[in-house]
Amino acid sequence: QVQLVESGGGLVQAGGSLRLSCASSDRTFNRYTMGWFRQAPGKDREFLAAIRWSGDSTLYGNSVKDRFAISKDNAKDTVYLQMNSLKPDDTAVYYCALATTSLGYDYWGQGTQVTVSS
């Protein structure tokens, strides 16, 4: 069972930046896509970004595509989410997820809290 561990969350002022990291514990699992999601209190989980593990194809949610950037380091089995121009509405728990096939995400991290103050 692969484990995903997010890090890099915290408190930041509006307009600031944060970089989240997601490291996976088992390199033997097939990686098709890794993605980032978030969930704010009382709201549904929101898709933010995804990256194919083979190649560099990326996909972004409309609400963040101009401010966030997903990247990866295959050698470190780590995916990153660079978040710029943060807004109070970006306050949420951020999760990374791993899809081993095209059918959907199979594994999820525990989440990291991001709080943006006004």
What's this entry about, in short?
With 118 residues, the protein is mostly beta strands.
Describe the structure.
It is a single chain. With 118 residues, the protein is mainly β. Helices cover 0% and strands 51% of the residues. The protein has no helices and 11 strands. The protein has strands spanning 4-7, 10-13, 18-24, 33-39, 46-52, 58-60, 68-73, 78-83, 92-99, 107-108, 112-117. The strands form 2 sheets. Strands 2, 4, 5, 6, 9, 10 and 11 form a 7-stranded mixed beta sheet that branches. A 4-stranded antiparallel beta sheet has the order 1-3-8-7, with no helix packed on it. Strand 9 (92-99) and strand 10 form a beta hairpin. The relative contact order is 0.32.
Question: How are the SSEs placed, and which strands pair?
Answer:
Elements: E1 4-7, E2 10-13, E3 18-24, E4 33-39, E5 46-52, E6 58-60, E7 68-73, E8 78-83, E9 92-99, E10 107-108, E11 112-117
Parallel strand pairs: 2-11
Antiparallel strand pairs: 1-3, 3-8, 4-5, 4-9, 5-6, 7-8, 9-10, 9-11
